[in-house]
Amino acid sequence: MDDRQRALNYLGLARRAGRIALGEEPCGAVCRSGHARLLLVAADAGDHTFRRARSFARSGKPPVLPVSFTKEELGGAVGQRACALAALTDAPLALAFVQCLPEAERPAELLETLRTQTARIEKRRKEEKAHQANIRHGGKKPGPAGK
Q1: What is the mean pLDDT of each run of 10 residues along the chain (147 residues)?
Q2: Residue 144 gets which letter from DSSP?
Q3: Which pLDDT score is estimated for 139?
Q4: Which of 27, 57, 89, 122 is exposed most, by the fewest CB atoms within 10 A?
Q5: What angle do CA 122, 107, 50 make, to 5 degrees?
Q6: DSSP readout, 32-52?
Q7: What Rg value do the Cα atoms of the chain yield, rounded?
Q8: Which residue segments constitute the domains of the chain, with CATH numbers given?
Q9: Greatest alpha-carbon span in the chain
């Protein structure tokens, strides 16, 4: 399986997990609420769609990534006929998607941002898991190292 198909498979996985918003209105809502981690724009999307994507990115701060996939390819990956705009709401899924793209299509600063977000999320999940274990066993929540 080539990298392009793997990237599209991640979009399908995000759809099944409920971690993607599809279309202009859902993407706008997700961006304004601050939950969007990556905003994808199809290669053959219209100028108005690109302007709307930039506007959404200013309101919610997600990075905008124009991808080389057509609207039909993006739509096919998520079970629709066509999709010009998609917003991933899960940082680890967004990172996996970007890592599958060809080298020329993945900006280094975007990769670094997604890696940082993913590391923070994993750290919070680990702390929450330890906290839940401590609640069950009567321990304390772990504090900063060295105390």
Answers
A1: 90 96 95 95 95 91 93 95 96 95 89 94 94 82 62
A2: S
A3: 64
A4: 122
A5: 105
A6: HHT--SEEEE-TT--HHHHHH
A7: 18
A8: 3-137 (3.30.1330.30)
A9: 58
> What gap in Å lies between CA 78 and CA 97, rounded to an integer?
14
The token pair at 135 is 């609640």
- H/E stretch holding 16 reads helix 3-17
* Cα gap 140→33, rounded to integer Å: 34
Q: What is the pLDDT of residue 143?
A: 67
Please check whether residue 36 is in contact with residue 53, taking contact to mean a CB–CB distance below 8 angstroms. no
Task: Give the pair of three-digit tokens for residue 44.
Answer: 């053959």
Positive or negative torsion for Cα 37, 43, 44, 47:
positive
CA–centroid distance for 141 within its chain:
30
User: Do the Cβ atoms of 123 and 131 come closer than 8 Å?
Assistant: no
What is the number of other CB atoms lying within 10 angstroms of the CB of residue 79? 12
Task: Count CB-CB contacts under 10 A for residue 102.
Answer: 11
pLDDT value at residue 2: 87
